[in-house]
Amino acid sequence: MFKFNCLLCGAVCCTFKSEEESPLVFPWEKRRLERLNKSSMFEPYIIYKINNEEIGVLMYRWKIEGRCLFLNREGRCTIHNSKPLSCKMFPLIIGLDDFTLRVSADCEVVKNHINDLETSDPKSSFPAEYPHAMKVFELIIKYDREAKKKGWNREIFKKEYSAHRIIDIDNLIKI
Fold this sequence. Notes:
By secondary structure, the protein is an alpha+beta fold. It contains 6 helices and 9 strands, in the order E-E-H-E-E-E-H-E-E-H-H-H-H-E-E. The strands form 3 sheets. Strands 2, 3, 4, 8 and 9 form a 5-stranded mixed sheet that branches. The chain has a two-stranded antiparallel sheet with strand order 1-5. Strands 6-7 form a two-stranded antiparallel ribbon.
């Protein structure tokens, strides 16, 4: 049975060729990252459109060009214990289009064991990462449930929404 063991290479999970590859973070993670590094940049990504004037942000895109700001010269994470859930769960990723758990084939370890993964259980194969992925699923489901009660629908942020008042979801809904 395949069991994932991170090489701590920082090659794929901490280096980004395009903005679309950058991690998604919850509002409280965004605030923590901003405290740790004032130059961190974020853009709303997954939102709830509340009305014609307000947007509730569920997740932000952490805009990273190239290497993560928190990698040291040796390529090691300097915030390893407090990094965001999206970093903790990699190479597991959540398909937001169909709400499925996926495995990134960009990771060298995954790439070298792709055949083993076809028949493996993600919980057993990714014991350190799987609980973090489940936490993300759980949070999204809880926020979706509460947002639906209010008549809000989850969607991807559009540039035309930038004139709206942006409110972090944890300031609107307490989970």
